[in-house]
Amino acid sequence: MPDTDIELRLVLSNVPDETVAARIARTLVDERLAACVNVFAACRSVYRWQGDIETADEITLLVKTTRARHHECVRRLAALHPYDVPEIVTLAPEQVWPAYAQWAADETAADAGS
């Protein structure tokens, strides 16, 4: 049975530009709320907002955290996010390479580096 604190969580979020993406990614990793944040190239989003169909170029973030740090990570992401309604979607993978899960747990340990 896996240690529930080492269960990996993947959090997806789109942000408006590379500057915001870099700031959020650095903050989450610096505060040990995420082991890693992938910052993807720009994508085009088409969505309905306040009755109109909108299009925007956005940057996708893929945040790697653990179950133990997930709640705090999502709260911080929401606080840093500039949108009124930020996209924050969490996925719980069924399988994660054990060494990678352990690395993520080590890098997000609240007491690491103290």
Sum up the structure in keywords:
4 strands, 114 residues, 3 helices, elongated, alpha+beta
Q: Quick gist of this model?
A:
The chain is of the alpha+beta class. It is built from 3 helices and 4 strands, in the order E-H-E-E-H-E-H.
Account of the protein in words:
The chain is of the alpha+beta class and 114 residues long. It contains three helices and four strands; from the N terminus they run βαββαβα. The chain has helices at residues 18-30, 67-80, 98-107, and strands spanning 8-15, 36-49, 52-66, 89-91. The chain has a four-stranded antiparallel sheet. The longest helix is centred in the middle third of the chain and has 14 residues, at 67-80. The mean pLDDT is 93.
Task: Identify the overall geometry.
Answer: elongated
Fraction of residues in β-strands: 35-45%
Report the biggest beta sheet as strand number plus sense, adding barrel if it closes: 4 strands, antiparallel
**Radius of gyration, CA atoms, in whole angstroms:** 15 Å
- Structural class call reads alpha+beta
Helix content estimate:
25-40%
Order of helices and strands: EHEEHEH
Report, as a whole number of angstroms, the end-to-end distance: 30 Å
User: Average pLDDT, to the nearest integer?
Assistant: 93
> Main sheet: which strands, in order across?
2-3-1-4
Number of helices: 3
DSSP strand count: 4
Would you identify the regions where 5 or more consecutive residues have pLDDT less than 50?
none
Q: What does the secondary structure layout of this molecule look like, with pairings?
A:
Elements: E1 8-15, H1 18-30, E2 36-49, E3 52-66, H2 67-80, E4 89-91, H3 98-107
Antiparallel strand pairs: 1-3, 1-4, 2-3
